[in-house]
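lol ok so funny story. i was supposed to be doing the assay writeup but got distracted and ended up predicting the structure for this chain instead. priorities right. anyway since i did it might as well share w the group, maybe its usefull for someone
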Amino acid sequence: MAVTNHERIGKALELLRAGLGAFIEREFTSAYRDQAHAAALHIVGEDRQLLGKPIAAWDAAALLRLMWDAWNDIFRKTLGHAERSLVSELREVRNAWAHQGTFSSDDAYRAMDSAARLLSAVSSPQAEDIETMKMELLRVRFDEQVRGEKRKKSLGKVIESAAAESLKPWREVVTPHPDVASGRYQQAEFAADLWQVHLGQGTDEYRDPVEFFRRTYLTESLKQLLVDAVQRLSGSGGDPVVQLQTNFGGGKTHSMLALYHLFSGVAPSELAGMDAVMQEAGAKKLPKAQRVVPVARSSSAAIRAKAFLPPSCQASSPHSVRTTVPSGLVTGLPGEIRFPTSTTRRTFGSALTPTSCITASMPASSLGAVPENRW
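and the output, tada:
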C-alpha cells in the first residue's frame, strides 16, 4: 500500500521527537540540575499530559515549543539563528499535520529536510533515518514522473491513431484540377502577363473578363481598389494615385488586370463580385475609360506601346509615349495606377488634365533592363 505524504511527515515528526527529546533533557539538566523537569513545565505551562513524563518522552509539539520559549536562556548557547528558524518552521508543519492538512511531495520533502537539518545540528542519529526517507520520496517522485510521461506519450498515440482513422486523405477532400491530375499543368500558363492580355493572348483565366473574375477571390484590398477606381472615374471620390507595393507574387499584376477587365466594356452584372463593388462605390453604371498599358520589357517597348495609342498623341521620340486620356485610367506605370480627372495634377513632371497627354520617357540605355509593370 502506498505511503501518503501525511504519513511520511507523521513518521518524520516521531523521529524528530526521539532525537530532540534526549538533547533537550540533557541541556535542561545541565542548566537546572534537579529542577530541570519543573523548569521545563513552568515554561510550557502546567500541562497534565506532561506531568508524569520525563522531558525525553514529551511529544514533538511540546518539545518544539520548549525549544522556542527557552531559546535565549538555554539553546542560544549551542545553536544558531538557522536552527531557530528550523524550529519555527517545524512548529508550523506539526500544527498543519495535526489538523489533517494536505501536503504535496515538495511540502513533505521540505519538512523532512528541515527535521533532518535540526537533528544533525544536535548530533542526533535519527537524522540518518530521515535522510533515508528523503531518498525514498525522491525515488517515488521520479517513478511518478516517468509514468506520467509514458501516459502522455500513450495518450498522444491514441489521439493520433483516432485522428488518422477519422481524417480522410487530402485527395478525397480536395479534387485536383484535371490538368494537374493528368500531369498537363504548365506553370507558365498561370503567370499573369498584362501585355499578353492586352494583345488578346494567354489563357482564358486571364484574358477573358468573365472567366477572370469568376476565378478571382476579391480580397478586401482588391475590392477597395476597384471601388476607388469606380468612384474616381465617376467623379465621386477615390484616390487619384494608387501605389501597389508588395513583394514578388503579392498580386500587383493581378490587381492591374482586375482594373483592366473591369473597364473592358463588359457589364458589371456579368462579372462575379462586381455587384458588391458597384453598390459600395455608389455607382449605377461604369464610366467609359480608355485603357493604356505601357510595358517596358525590351528596346521596342515604347514602339509597341505607341502602336495602340491615338495618332494625335504618339510622340516623335522612339523612347517616349504620349497619349490623351479623357477621364480615363493608366495602368502599368512604376508601381502606380493613375486616374486623371478635370483637376490638374502633376505627373512625370508635366500637368495632367482630361485634354492633355501623358509623356513617359526612359533613357535608351535602360530599356530592356526594366521588368514588366515597373515603368
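The first helix runs from residue 5 to 32. The mean pLDDT is 75.
back to the writeup now i swear
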